[in-house]
Amino acid sequence: MAELNWGVFDLNLLVVFDAVMNERSVTRAGARIGLSQPAMSHALARLRHLLKDELFIRSPHGMMPTARAEEIAAPVRRALGDLQQSLHAPAFDPAAATNSFRIAVDTYSAMVLAPAVVARCAALAPGMVLDIRASGMLNVPERLDRGDLDLAIGAAEPDGERFARHRLLRDDFVALLGRGLAGAGRALAAGDFAALPHVEVSSLSEELDFLDRTLAGLGLKRRIALRVPLLSAGPVLAGAPMVAVLRRHLAERLARDHGLEVRPLPLASPRVEIAMHWQRRVDGLAAHHWLRQLVAGVAQAL
């Protein structure tokens, strides 16, 4: 027997074959799969030509399968079932999930979002593993492309249409007053604000270019008294009459943790967007979709 040319074989013909095999009627089989009787007859003719067999013979009891049709019926049914199952998006059960996800976060997201994401995930998907990494030294687009990262969260924007994006937060900047300054009860004037001893967070200093430009336009300049890593900012302000300028959600987190006070800036503040990004090729993965919804829900609740 000549070998079939699978490059031109129409798999829909097997759907027609399976329907006729089950219904033993071309009309009923067509109604079952949504094809007209002429289309069914044409499909059967093509399949008979390709397989070099009549496959079905009309009889008083309907379309009776030939020996060849009986022989291939079970393998065709299994193959169609396996194909349908492989193409059907499986239901995702977070309680039973054991997926592992690698997430890159910037400094802000590590403090503001990551703890709540981890807590929510642990409660809903206790078998899931989250590998959260600092994004500062990573080539995030390249790692997303390679599959070394599943999700990136932060203010940076990977370039290219191959990346999907979902906005999580928009944050302005505020003043975080150290314990010796808190409770003064009066609004900060630009001159008084600039004259205060400022704590600058070393990893976030570039975010404050807007502040220095605006103050310079007023003939003012911040007095930087100390530069510290972010992890030291809260404890330092808890024990010193200094001020730091941070994005609102981060400042509020440190204020809660260290008994500090958040005040509006005495000048206009830009708003910074925090978003999550991922490679579009994983859009349809049920577990990844669930994780994205979880992160979005955490951000919305802040």
UniProtKB/TrEMBL annotation:
CDD domains per UniProt: PBP2_Nitroaromatics_like
Domain of life: Bacteria
One GO MF term attached to the UniProt entry: DNA-binding transcription factor activity
Entries under SUPFAM superfamilies matching the protein: Periplasmic binding protein-like II, Winged helix' DNA-binding domain
Keywords linked to the UniProt accession: DNA-binding, Transcription, Transcription regulation
Domain HTH lysR-type: 9-66
Protein family (similarity comment): Belongs to the LysR transcriptional regulatory family.
Classification via PANTHER family: HTH-TYPE TRANSCRIPTIONAL REGULATOR LEUO-RELATED (PTHR30118), TRANSCRIPTIONAL REGULATORY PROTEIN (PTHR30118:SF15)
Descriptive protein name: HTH lysR-type domain-containing protein
